[in-house]
Amino acid sequence: MALASLCKIIWAVGVIAWYFIRRPAERRAKRHRIVSNQRDATDKFGLVAASVGLGLIPGLFALTGFPHDATYSARPFSLVLGTILYCAALWVFRRTHKELGKNWSISLEIRAEHELIASGPYALVRHPMYTSFLLMAAGQAFLLSNWIVGLAGFLGFAALFFLRVDKEEQMMLEFFGSRYREYMRRTKRIIPYVY
């Protein structure tokens, strides 16, 4: 089996795993009442951009090889590093869903009896779900040997992150007040000890 094909298979398995991690959280979330919803057009755009950059464009490349002109040869180190990054992304992604429990939402929402979670990956960063998306984008860039596909993952992540993170933190400040402000003082946004 060609190295490039193996890389594409690993990426596809990662996407399937991502879905199976996310699906139970979506079902569970529907059982809990929403008390505040900050979803707007920019939030929806960020979600679409992330879906396109981390799903649609790489999926198209994995299935068809398009865009052909931006493709380069896969390397063994890319397979190894991409697999490690994608596995790390899935581990963080699963841990965030587990820690959030009934508080999870795909959008900017506060649920009934919402709690401030500061354990697990949330002990290190305020937005580990975005950390997982950043790791997925990096894993995608190494696994799928195409410049456009690699860039698409990072652009999809960036659109979601930068369009939402300030609004998300403002919403948490309004709901949790000084508790969230203190939590912000002791944690970074998405990269432990850095940013």
Automatic annotation (TrEMBL):
Locations listed in the record: Membrane
Entry-linked InterPro entries: ICMT_MeTrfase, Isoprenylcys_mtase, Metal_cation-efflux_comp
MF (Gene Ontology): protein C-terminal S-isoprenylcysteine carboxyl O-methyltransferase activity
GO cellular component: membrane
Topology in the lipid bilayer: Multi-pass membrane protein
Keyword Lipoprotein: no
UniProt keyword annotations, A-Z: Membrane, Methyltransferase, Transferase, Transmembrane, Transmembrane helix
Main location: membrane
Top-level taxonomic group: Bacteria
Transmembrane segments: 6-25, 45-66, 72-93, 133-163
GO biological process: methylation
Pfam families listed in its UniProt record: ICMT
UniProt-recorded name of the protein: Isoprenylcysteine carboxylmethyltransferase family protein
Species this protein is from: Rhizobium grahamii
Taxonomic lineage: Bacteria, Pseudomonadati, Pseudomonadota, Alphaproteobacteria, Hyphomicrobiales
